[in-house]
Amino acid sequence: MNLESQIAVLLLAYTILSYSIHVIARYLKDLIVNVLSIATGIAMAYLCFNARGVAGLIGSMGVLTLIVSLLIAELYRVERRAMFSMLGVYFVGTSILLLITDSALRLFIYWEIIAMVMIGSLALYRSNDGYEAALKYAIICLPSSIVGLFGLILAISETGSLAFPELLLGAASLSKALMAIGFGAEIALFPMYVWLPSVYVGMHPLLLAVEVSSILPATSYIVGTIASMSPATALVISSLALIGSLVGSLSSIVQGDLRKLLSYSTLSQIGYIVLGLSAGTTLARSYSILQMIAHEIPKASLLLISFALLSRLKTSEVNSLSRLGGSYKFVVIGSALALLGLPPFLSFWSELYIFLGTFSAGTPWNILAIVYFTAIVLSTGYAFKIIYTYAEGAAESERIGTDAMGLLILLFFLLSILLSPLQSSILQYFLGFSP
Amino acid sequence: METTTNLLAILSLNSFVASALILLFRRRAIAELLAIASAILSLAISMYLISLPYLPIEIQFLPHISLYLDRLSAFFSLVVSLIGSAVAIYSVDYMKNAKDFTRYYSLISLFVGAMLNLVLASDIIYLLLNWELVGVCSALLIAYWWERKEARRAGMKALIMTRIGDVGLMAFASIALYYGESSIPAILSSQQLSLKLIPFLPLLVLAAMGKSAQFPLHTWLPDAMEGPTTVSALLHAATMVKAGVYLMLRFYPIFLGNQAAVAFLLAVSIITLYLSSLAGLVSMDIKRVLAFSTLSSLSLMFIAICLGEFYVALLYLFNHALFKALLFLVSGRVEHSLHTRDISRLKGLWGKGFKIETAGFLIGALSAAGLPPLSAGIVKEELFVGMIPHFSLLEYYLIAGTMSFLMAIFIMRPFVLSFLGRTSNEGAHDKERTPLMTGVNLFLLAMTLIAIVPTMIISRYLGGSGLKLEIETLPFLGVLLGILCAFFIPRTNVSISNIMRKSIESSFGIDIAYNRIGEVFYRYISMAASKLNSGKASQGLRGMIAIVVLIIIALVVFAP
């Protein structure tokens, strides 16, 4: 049985067991499903880690974020935890499946499952924000995925093959472009990013942290891979991604809500990842994959922080950040600096080498590399906004000190420092790439 | 040899380890002990390493993470760890009432560690990593009292302005890697590679301008005074601002190959020197005056580098480290007692019992003014001698004369106004015992007085011909005149309006212009970007359709 089958069987078994528990254990279902979800996550991480590859890296980190989110959800008695944890497992599971599948048809099926899980996650708490976000997401991403499907069908008809990504080698530029644009809506490619801020507000932050660690890197990887197969498509997709980066960096500065600020920051970071994947050099591609986790750790940490704000202070305004003290302080400031790509964080390496890898790809990639660099410099604005606003209210009394959630988030966030000196070993182990 | 590499590894890592341990234990005594012990250990190792006869040595830890010890890096390690040790000891008294001492000591150790690794870096990527880390640490330390708006603004400003310069180093490192080499010794020893990189040297100049606060990226340094005085001492004397000078000295073998970069840096340094001297002449904040003095001193070092006076730059850097640490720590002692930095309120400090501080400030100020036979004065004279072949006689006299006069008058002015004169009743000298602060000040005072001895030794160690002990008449007269004029300031009724003072302090509006640019950026550009998203799903859908249509048209038109 190959890895894809193993993960699929595992997910199927998990689904049957979870629904059974839902029906049978009425009072303890939340706890039991949560435990089952963690166990399933660990099993998936074990399988992925041994299989290595991009799926190994993304899958392992996705599971880690899932476990942290589930522990926090259990600690703070988040409502509808059983359903919550199931959606989290589906996020991670389908992301892994997306990354390891070798069939174009199954790729599309997983893609649509992801869309359904996203809509389900947004509608989970039946809030107006959630419904609105689900609607926006559906209106933009579902028709776009049909465009992607159209491109896929064209590619299949041109090559007669279902093997992914091999079929891309023989496909025409049009089919690749349609696939990249159509599927690009899922990664909020400019100008289809309209749904992203709404989703960040509408989705539960703990689930969003899992999404950022699993769906986002997996879909970015697929779009980047499709784009890299055709020079013209690569250029178009990278340019759009970089426009998104610039817009994201600039827009995030004026956001008053932390979750909206983070959504625009994600838009900005997606641009870096897609650029590196599309540039066509091994260096840029490898470090783009590293950037996925380098970005994920601080971003998920800040999303977990936004949950702390919402659960304690019933607000996610950036101004309220300063009410968090203790270990939260370190995470807030550290995450902002990590999003800037400063040392000692993992993102320092990935952002630097994406620049170098793209720059060395020749013209016009060196021009795009300079635009990328500009976006990084502009991102200083929102990172400073977080730090500055946090500091501004520092004199106020009554701050929430270190607690179990704070410690968990801190431990998770420390990975971005601890993994930094291991960056070359990570790439060597998972991708077989020696810098 | 194995012992040496082990010691080099310890020198590189011990401050980082201390920083992490301080965060872990979170006890004041342990934090103080770890910070001091790690700094002194670094000093001891640096002293041992500088005495080694078989330099250079290189060790590799991981890809791109490697150390290189030659005479230049050994010299810098010594300066960093010497000032780092003094600051760590002084901090025990200075920060004894600080609540968040863990953050302070941890960051100080990290700052020293990052600077040590910066000067020891063999790989340009590792240099860049520590370069950025130094910037982050300094911003966090400047904003240490971040409940104060000024401190927050100053920290942010430092990070933004230095980051503009960092772009230069990042781009240069990327280009070096593009050509397939990231080892600094390999870059410098390969003639072929050096020739390829010489056209890109202006990028290094940009990086140095940002870190060493040269015009027009100089406005963050005076504002950085909002941090604790110990941080200012460290930042000005040994770390951060010296990183830019180090960068130029490290790439000195190829730097002079790009005459455009040399001319540009020379012009920038001369402008910075005059702007900072004028600003120092009107500023009423004693620490800001010291900051302006640092700007002018850094300019002198860059001028020396541009004129090919490598050893003079290094020797001046050493002397500057001593007298600037002395000036800051003496001022810190005064501020610690009287809780003000305002020159107009600090009157007659000698009469109030600040005897050691008065002596310390006087010696520090005379050194900064460049008065021989103090070591800094002799080195400065050496620089003036070096200037002669590069300028016409008129230019030389104009530059050297005004430079000497301005640098002397503006640094002596706060001494005359604050330390001499009648004692005011305001702010009586408290009787708090601060033996460590006083001890460190006495040590630095003694070191500044006898600095000529280590300066001579260092000169020979670095391969220089030793100091010539020549005195140029006009610059010397300029210094004397500046000092003399400073003593007459209290007797004159010359005063300027606050608007004029602010204008000169902000380098004739440059700082205000930066703020305006920031506001415009925030109000208009960011807002406009934000408004691109109407929030309507139809916008995204229309965008997708438009791109698909455009791609189809493009493919139809451009298809072969």
Explain the layout of strands and helices:
The complex is a heterodimer of chains A (435) and B (560).
Chain A: H1 3-24, H2 29-51, H3 53-75, H4 81-100, H5 104-123, H6 128-159, H7 167-170, H8 173-184, H9 195-202, H10 205-213, H11 215-228, H12 231-253, H13 258-278, H14 282-313, H15 326-339, H16 346-359, H17 365-392, H18 404-418, H19 423-431
Chain B: H1 2-25, H2 28-50, E1 57-62, E2 65-69, H3 71-94, H4 101-120, H5 124-142, H6 149-178, H7 184-189, H8 191-197, H9 201-211, H10 220-223, H11 229-237, H12 241-250, H13 252-255, H14 259-282, H15 286-306, H16 310-338, H17 355-369, H18 375-387, H19 393-419, H20 435-449, H21 452-461, H22 473-488, H23 498-505, H24 510-531, H25 537-558
Antiparallel strand pairs in B: 1-2
Helix pairs in contact in B: 1-2, 1-4, 2-3, 2-4, 3-4, 3-11, 3-16, 3-20, 4-5, 5-6, 6-9, 9-12, 9-14, 11-16, 12-15, 14-15, 14-19, 15-16, 15-19, 16-17, 16-18, 16-20, 17-19, 17-20, 19-22
Q: Summed up, what is this model?
A:
Chain A has 435 residues and is an all-alpha fold. Chain A is 79% helix and 0% strand. The chains are: A mainly alpha (435), B mainly alpha (560).
Shape of chain A: globular
User: Which blocks of ≥5 consecutive residues of chain A have pLDDT under 50?
Assistant: none
Q: Largest sheet of chain B, order of strands side by side?
A: 1-2
List unreliable stretches of 5+ residues of chain B: none
Strand content of chain A: under 5%
**Strand percentage of chain B:** under 5%
Major pleated sheet of chain A: none
The global form of chain B is: globular
- Percentage of residues in helical conformation of chain B: over 70%
Q: How many helix segments of chain B?
A: 25
**From N to C, what is the helix and strand string of chain B?**
HHEEHHHHHHHHHHHHHHHHHHHHHHH
Report how far apart the termini of chain B are.
66 Å
N-to-C CA distance of chain A: 33 Å
Oligomerization category of the chains in this entry: heterodimer
Tell me about the largest β-sheet of chain B. 2 strands, antiparallel
Mean pLDDT reading of chain B: 87
The arrangement of helices and strands of chain A along the chain is HHHHHHHHHHHHHHHHHHH
Structural class of chain A: mainly alpha
